[in-house]
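Forgive a beginner's question, but might I ask you for the amino acids of a protein and the tokens describing how it folds?
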Amino acid sequence: MEDILDVYTRKYDKKHSLVCMYEFPQQVIGEIWIPVPAEKGSLACFDTEYKRNGTCSVFMFAAPH
């Protein structure tokens, strides 16, 4: 782990750019019931039940320098 942390402290080098990748899984969900919007004198109503539409992986690439 310490070797990886040393990479982030290196000075900027045009020939060897540093690119970081971060990946995390995400659940894709959808509404089953249509939420009722708030009106004057009442609160918005929504149901906590949801439909599972699968999963996906989200990738993020960044150049910290």
About this structure: The chain has one domain: 2-62.
